[in-house]
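Quick one:
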Amino acid sequence: MTRAFVCGCSGVTLTREERGFLRDSAPFGLILFKRNIEAPDQVRALIDSFRETCGDADAAVLVDQEGGRVQRFAPPHWRAYPAAARFAALDLPLERKERLVRLAAALMGRDLRLLGVSIDCAPVLDVPVAGSHAVIGDRAYGRDPRIVAKLGRAAALGLRDGGVLPVAKHIPGHGRAEVDSHFDLPVCTTPLDELRDTDFLPFAANADLPMAMTAHVVYTALDEECPATLSKPVIDYIRDDIGFTGLLLSDDLSMQALHGDLRGRAAAAFGAGIDLALHCNADLAEAAAVAEAAPLLAGASLARASRAREWRSEEMHFDPVEAWAEIQAALAIAAR
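Output:
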């Protein structure tokens, strides 16, 4: 049986202690970071080792591969993909920008699929506002929520074209955060009516996507105390009002926006209604605490996970060389 959490590992191979933990805890998946990546064959071997240790050939492997500054797979072995904002800023019709975004995401998805990665924690559907922290910044597809919705959907479909699952983040919206949730807790006091028309809109327009990641942000219009990840009123709003029906993954529970021990954080997140807990820093003591709080993946969460797997398609037939050349040509024209 699979337990409803995702963990990290410390290096480019699994340690003996990590193998024991994975065998005992049976996580839903493993998330990779730059510390885990040297070269294609090494990554494939690490992923194979993870799945063999878990005894599950289909165990999920996740990564944050957005392009721009959030790009775990980078040169010299992989392409340097543009940040989302570069596509949004192109002086081109929206339909053309959608095509370029989809092509870039399909190429990223193909890169990941060839390594054995099955889930990409992208696209970012957040809508930054003036004065917000730069943690989102150029990771977003601009400041118009309708454009963000369309370009974000193009990216999600492109990842599917490449053969991996997308994860919309950070639901219901991280764009107004004035601090970085890796280090502090953002509090958003914007009225609900305004949030519906801005921050929440790209997520509502993409409520049929297979997976989403929560934001460690307090929305006082819905819950004056708890960030979305730990808030039942916010998770209920995500389900009932935004209409998201897919698999809901927490953002990293080790981030400093959250307080208390890791077991308590995980228990609160599951109590709020998330499906999967994410723990990234490879601290085995912390990961074990999250695993203790994580239930077996069952019931509605298991059904959502099954539907998510079905959403992924076979690789779309496209020429990677031609696709990359088309993207590079558009960016070169914009740079003149």
